[in-house]
C-alpha cells in the first residue's frame, strides 16, 4: 500500500455491505490504442472520471467561457477557486449548474454555455462525500497571487473574501493596488 501522500497506480476496493466498489486502473495499450482494460473488457463498465480530472475540466471550461465573455481576470480565477472549494466543503459535491450560477451569476448566456459544455463529460453532480477529497480541497483553500513586481501572496479563502481584511483597488491607469487591513502581528518566515 502506498503512503497517504501517494496515489496508488492500481487498486480495487469493494464495500461488501452495499456492493459498491472503487477502481483505480492504469490505461494500457490494447490493439494499438490505450484503454481501461479491466473496467471496459472484464467488468464491462465505463469508468467514471476522477475528482481531480473533473475539477481540472471544470476550471478549464470556466476559463474558456470567461475568456469568451470577457470576464477573465485574476478576480474571476479567485472566484472560481473559491466556488469549487465551497462546493466541495459545504455540499460534498460538484455540480456544473451550481458552479455556473456562482461564477456567471449576472450572465445567463455564459451560465448556459458553461453547463452545456460540461453536459457530456459531467452529466451528474460529482459526489465526494464518501471519498477522501482532502488533497483537492487543500489546493483550493488558499488563493495564491503572483504579482508583476515579484511579490507572491498566499491568502486563505475566508480572508480573501472578507472586505475588512483584503481590498483590491483598480487604479485609473489600469493597475491594481492591494490593501491589507487590520493586521495585528507580522512575522518573518
From TrEMBL:
One cellular component (GO) term of this entry: nucleoid
Domain of life: Bacteria
Pfam families per record: NA37 (PF04245)
Protein name stated in the entry: Pseudouridylate synthases, 23S RNA-specific
Species of provenance: Streptococcus troglodytae
